[in-house]
Amino acid sequence: MKRHPSRQALGLAVGLALAGPPSLLSAQSAGDQSASELTNAGALFLLLPVGAQGVGMGQAGVTLQGRGEAVFWNPAGLATMTSSEFALNSANLVAGPTTAITMFVPRRGIGVFGLGVYLVDYGEEDVQVDSTFVLAHIAPRNLEYLASFATSVAGAVTVGMTYKLVQFDVNCSGNCTGLPSGSTALTHALDIGAQVTVGAGGALRFGAVVKNIGFKLQVNNAAQADPLPARLTLGALYRIDFRPVDTGPGPSLAIPDSGKVGLQQAIDQVDLRLAADVDRPWDNSAPPEMRLGLDLGYHELIRLRSGYAFTRQGLSGPTVGVGIHTGSIALDFARTFVSGTDLLATNPTFVSFSLIF
Predict the structure, then answer these.
(1) Which residues does 191 contact at the CB level (< 8 Å), separation at least 6?
(2) Predicted TM-score of the model (pTM)
């Protein structure tokens, strides 16, 4: 089924991909340039959050571990995966849906290997000379192909790396003279990250990642190439484990001994995780941004999340989320409360589904 987003949305698609004036819309009076005004970089779609677990915690994901979603926040978090995982992540941009599919396989004594693809599909738009004559139909999209490896070093330290093939495609039908068609831009990038766990029971975890380090995104010639939105992110997470309070002898608790044991075992599985991330452009061209999040839950069975992102790029605002993990299935939801921006639809919902085996 064909979608027909607004002219503004299509201009945004090109701006997200190229971060320059949307020349693709020359037949449409150049369209909207708001995305190119956000930052001087190419492939701005790489800055969009992916994954409901991290988004639910206010986009504070640099210390995320044990799940394939970590590949989009800090690949070092993949090293703690103990089971294979297939995952599907989706969300909504103002111009169309985003979809990420990943697959990760751990190998004992070696590390975790994985592959993935991330698609931002902007739908189809008519290129018109005037209000009555349609010149052509174009359908732009961004693609990111990923290959990752992560492993543990000296026990408490994990490291990871993700190679990315970044691509901007435009499918064109009709009179496409002067309009891009096919793979119009292609480049390569790396994410390199590390995590360190310290404290009793690994309650405190630090993370660091450099993302989108690579070649410029070149469309027509070198003079028009734009640097990728490389960023450095630092973060920490502290886990608080809950324990029952001993009230001493007496009838106040009114729970049989067997019940006390069950209650203690249940409470032992409840924990609260507090996370904070700070990131900035790798070239220090803009002020740092902060993200705060919390995650309360019973073991991994059910998690309640919330947070706030103090960011630019139209992504600031509070978030809430919930995660359910039962057997071999994990399902996470998150919602970001933004009032409609150049990058996201109003109050977008993020959904992540994982099959663990």
Answers:
(1) 74, 75, 160, 161, 162, 164, 209, 210, 211, 212, 213
(2) 0.81
